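Annotated sample (chain length 491).
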Amino acid sequence: MGELNFNFSFIWPETIFFILILYLFLAALLEKKRPAFAGPLGLLPVPVLGLLAALSSALTLDLSQTMFFGSYRVDALSQFFKLLISLGFVVASLNALKQPTLEAEKRVEYHLFLTLSSFGLVVLSSGVELVTIYLALELSSYSLYILVPARAKSKEAAEAGLKYILFGAAATALALYGLSWIIASQETTYIAKLAELPWDFATSPLAVMGLALFLGGLFFKLALFPFHFWCPDVYQGASNETAAFTATLPKLGAIIVLIRLATLLKPELELTHILAFLAAVSVTYGNLCALVQKDLKRMLGFSSVAHAGYILVGLCAGTAEGLAAAAFYAMAYLLMNLLCFWVISRISHDGRNLAYDDLNGLSDRSPVLAMCLAASAFSLVSLPPTVGFIGKLWLITSLWGHGYDWLVIVVCVNSAIAIFYYLSLVRHAYTEDVPAQASLDGTPLINATDTGALSYAGALVMGILVLLLGVIPGPVYSLALNAAKAVVGGN
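Output written by the structure step:
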C-alpha cells in the first residue's frame, strides 16, 4: 500500500497538539513547585496552540498526501475536520478555565487529558486504515474515561464515569470483533481496497456482519440509537464543561470515519437500509425523550441522539453531496452545541446542573447571553436564517430521490417536534420571571451570571457565526463538497 512518504509539513496540527501535550505533562510534574502553571498564564498556551493548530489545518486544506504505508491520509476532508476539532478544542479549553467543580490542583491534568483526547481525534481524521482508526478512536476515548468523573464530591459524576467506561468497553469489544471478521473475509483493512470489494449480504455475509459490528463502535461515540444509553446519564453526571466537550468533539471523530466508510455503501445495500432505519428511530426516540426532560444537559443528551440520526441521513444518500451535507452539519452541530453549553456554563456559576426555570429572567440579567442562547436554540431547531437550518436543508435534499424519501418525511416531522423543547429555552429566558428557588435541587437560585469580557466575547463570536454561516454558507459548503468529491473519487 505504498511507501512511508513522511513529510513533516503535512502533519503540523498533530505536531502542535503533541507539543502541547508535552508542555502540560511537564507542567503537571512541576505544578507543586510552581503553582503558576495552574493559573491563567500557565494555561494560556492551551487555547493559543489550539488556534495555531486550527490555522495550520486551514493553510493545508489543498494538500493531498498518503503517508505511513497508506494508513494515514492528509486531504481536504481530514484538514477540514482537523480545523473543526482544533477550533472546538479552543472553545472547550476556554470554557474550562473557570471550572467551579474542579479542584485547583487538578486543572493542569484536566487540560492535559482534554488535549490528549483532541489529539486522538486529530489523528483519527487522517486514518484510512481500520486498525489505525481503531487505535486513534481508543486514544481519544481513554482520556474521556478520566474526565467524566472529574467533578468534586459528586456521586452522579462517579456513576456517569462508570457507565461511560462500561459502555465504552462493550463498544470497543464489539468494534474489535467486527474488525476481525472484516480481516478474515476481505483480507485487507485499507478503506481504498475495501471500496473495491462487494458489500452485499449474498456475496460477503461475513464482511457485512463485521462492518456492522465495527460501525457499532462508532455509533457509540455518535450516541446513535440503540447505542445511546450512556449519553443522557453522562451529560447529566459530568460537569458542565466536560459535558460540553463530550457532547461535541468526539462526535466529529465518529462522523469523519463514517464519511470515509460510507464510500463502501450504496443505497441498495442491506447495510444502508439498516442505517436508514436506525436514523429514523434515533431522531424519533431522541426527540420524544427530550420533550419530557427538566435537566438541560439531559435534554441536550437526548437531543444529540436525534442529531446523530440527522447526520446519518447524508450518509444514506451515497453521493458526494450527501457526504458534504453530513460534514457541513457536523460543523453546524459543533457550533450550536458549544454555544448552548457556553451559555449554560456562564449561568451556572457554582457548577450545578440547570433546569429550564434557571433560565428565567436571563434577558434581564444578561441580554447578550440570552440573545446568544436564542440563536443556538433557533439553530438547533433548524429555523432560518441559522446554520442549523441550511445544514438540515442540504441533508434532506441530498437524500431525496435516492430511495429513502420516507426518511426525509420522518426528519421533517421530527424537526417540528423539536420546536417544543428547544424554544422552551427562549421562552424561559425572555418571558418568565425569576423564581425564588431552582427547580432541580430546591436550592436558592443566586443570580450571579458570569458577565465578564471573555464570557460575552465567546458567546458573541459563536452567536454571530451561527447566523453568518446560515446566511453565507457557500464557502464552507464548497470546501466540504470538494473534500467529499475527492474521497468518493479517491476510493
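Annotation: The chain has a mean pLDDT of 83.
Annotation: The beta strands are 65-67, 72-74.
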